[in-house]
Design brief:
Order of helices and strands: HHHHHHHHH
Helix content: over 70%
Oligomer: single chain
Shape: elongated
Number of domains: 2
Number of helices: 9
Strand content: under 5%
Length: 233
Amino acid sequence: MFLDLFKGMLLILTGSWLFYDSVFAALFLLPFLWLWHRECRRSREQKAEEQFQKMFREWILLLSSSLSAGYSVENAFGQTCRELKMMFPCGGIMMDELKEMLAKLENNQRPETVLSEFAGRYPLEEVRSFVEVFCTARISGGSLNAVIQSTATQMAEIMDTRREIRTLLAARVYEQKIMSVMPAAVLLYIRIGSGEFLEELYHNPAGIAVATLCLGIYLSAYLLGKRMVRFEI
């Protein structure tokens, strides 16, 4: 949070110097700090969701393998927790949730109840679908191992496809970031190398109006570019 605030203030000060040649202009650009904070928060949430989905994919595959090996549901949860910890030693949201589920199972709560509460906290399509299949198989008394194994395999394939799509689009996202930086980089190059070309832009009403218009177009293009490369799979 503090790092995001520091970066935002640095960008505002740089923008006020590039477009207005005045540090005091940063006072009028402070509202953009909220926009920067929102984008940073959205980026963190997206990374956390991707990490959660990755760990969830591995967990359902491990759970399927444990059930196929003859473990009971309760013991399978404990086994997958140990194996997932070896795969992700740094931990994560899924690891914390799995530890909480194990604690509830040790208090004799039913696995269906524990997973339903988990799905309520993370209403993602993959989580909801898996929990529905798991609870249905437990209640109906069907072959839990076969159902979980088939569902886990299908969901893993879907999540792998989504990851491949993200990988293919990663180049476009990188290009968008470069194009977002280029206008400011060119202006900075001119300002440092040939500052006399920009003297008419500063400290006069016409120049301030032009600089404000250019800054507005720049920010609009940035937001449009972010929206174009933002996708839902």
